[in-house]
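This protein record is not my work; I was only asked to verify it. Where you disagree with what is written, explain briefly why. This is what I was given:
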Amino acid sequence: MGGFETLQSGEQDERNCEFARIVGKSPALEVVLEQVERVARTDSTVLIQGETGTGKELIAQAIHNVSPRYGRPYVKLNCAAIPFDLLESELFGHERGAFTGAIAQKVGRFELADKGTLFLDEVGDIPLALQPKLLRVLQEQEFERLGSGRTHRVNVRLVAATHRNLDQMVKRNEFRCDLYYRLNVFPIALPPLRARREDIALLVTHFVEVFSRRMAKQISNIPQETLDAFTSYSWPGNVRELQNLIERAVIRSDNGVLANPLPTLDANLVGANLPNTNLVGPTGTFKDSQRALILQALQAAGWIIGGPDGAAARLGLKRTTLIAKMKKLEISRPVRKDDMDRLSESRECEPWLQPTAE
């Protein structure tokens, strides 16, 4: 979208530099960027939701960069990385002697972010006992340090992120409903990489440039077969997984040609639990890699093809497309001998479902 692709001079160049790290032109990503541009102008609380590795921290930074608070503090805290007994101190600070080991006064993240933006990553991991204090500071913009009765007032814009389903956590009484509603003022849902396959080639090119420059290696050729393998893969780890695999590929690359790490990866992931799958090795073809990917998705889905949790959805394919690929690749569901009689009596089983020996 124009607001993110057209850079202006001076300060706007610097403010937009973070958007250069958000690579892609898919419709799903465009929707997210439009939401970022719309909410960034306000002081409203933003809740970024998405699977692990989808780039929630990049979006949070982008919101700050194009907001009126740009140039003020941008403070980050991963709530899942801090032990429970230290998280309150990290958020609100403490006075000397407030608890054993508190040998000096500590300023918390809310104070550090005063007049700016505080990004709380993995906010779904905040313990229930601490959630009322977070709610208070969001509503009243005031708090007390541990061991102090003095109230501190702050002006902080909160951006929170989580890979958890907070709505379901509220129903299970694992997350306070009032805090959830306070966080969920403006939700942004990040799409998984499998929902924006149009961006995969751009991301591959981007990460190849980054890592080849970092490793002082010249990568001038990305084979189409390798790009096809990347595009067909389901990417359970999303952009972070792609980034790590490209780093591995650049390390393994010789003669300026990007290596394809996916066949070896798929063999490791699918493993020996799938009988008679003819898994691909490091020198396997794209057809072998595609077959292993489909088998992996089928196994993970319990051999259910359609539906929201079926193999087709995991691969980002239509049900009919996956069925056609299965027939072309001669993929059949393994069936035990004990089930042969039952299957022979059923006229409703899928035509490609053939019994095999154990």
In short: The domain at 2-191 is CATH 3.40.50.300 (Rossmann fold). The first helix runs from residue 2 to 5. The CA atoms of residues 232 and 290 lie 7 Å apart. The longest strand covers residues 157-162.
